[in-house]
Fold Ribulose-phosphate 3-epimerase.
Amino acid sequence: MVKVAPSILSADFCCLSEEIKKVENGGADLLHIDVMDGHFVPNITLGPPVISSLKGKTYLPFDVHLMIENPEKHIDDFIKAGADIITVHVESTVHLNRLVNYIKNKGIKPGVALNPSTPLSSLQYILDDIYMILIMSVNPGFGGQKFIPKMLEKIRDLKRVILQENPEILIEVDGGINEENAPDIIKAGADILVAGSAIYLSSNPGDVIEKLKTAH
Ligand SMILES: O=C(CO)[C@@H](O)[C@H](O)COP(=O)(O)O
Ligand SMILES: [Co+2]
């Protein structure tokens, strides 16, 4: 069954621990934490102090999505803060192989994210080193955007590559996911669905999580 990772970007930041409990009780599998620096993307969110303050408030693993320039400068801070998965953007660092292996050697699961226009070929020589690939299905920076339909083809193409090269890698899809488009995204090959606004702007987050998990 597909896993669901609610993004706290659309949660009420004034009471994050209650907001996290809501999705934990609603059956979430991971907690997706969007870190934005105002440079790599045109928005600023939160950093390591907020993440470490949330550790211990939930048993959900922390799926930290870094949308920051020069992520290598800050990796140790995110590890100390309690990240379980750290995903970096291919477009944000020159030394991707070094960074991914640094994360892995620290005992953290490394993920690599691709912006919608970045080709899959940028991952060709890194497939033995990573735990997860995050396909951005919106341009990163904001919650509440519309899913880019062309990304279904990208997910299908990636699934084919992974099955040939390293079937262990998980495919996470992030941006504009809701109950209506989830079946197609799952059919295309997604293992983990990130959803922010669909879950947090709903009056019943647990119901949305359940519908995403059982979509087919
Ligand atoms: O990384 C990002 C945005 O850059 C995402 O994780 C969004 O926060 C998902 O929000 P929705 O598109 O589901 O509202
Ligand atoms: Co994200």
Summary: The mean pLDDT is 98. The first strand starts at residue 3 and ends at 6. The pocket of cobalt (II) ion (ligand 2) is lined by residues 7, 32, 34, 65, 174, 194 (CB under 6 Å). The radius of gyration is 16 Å.
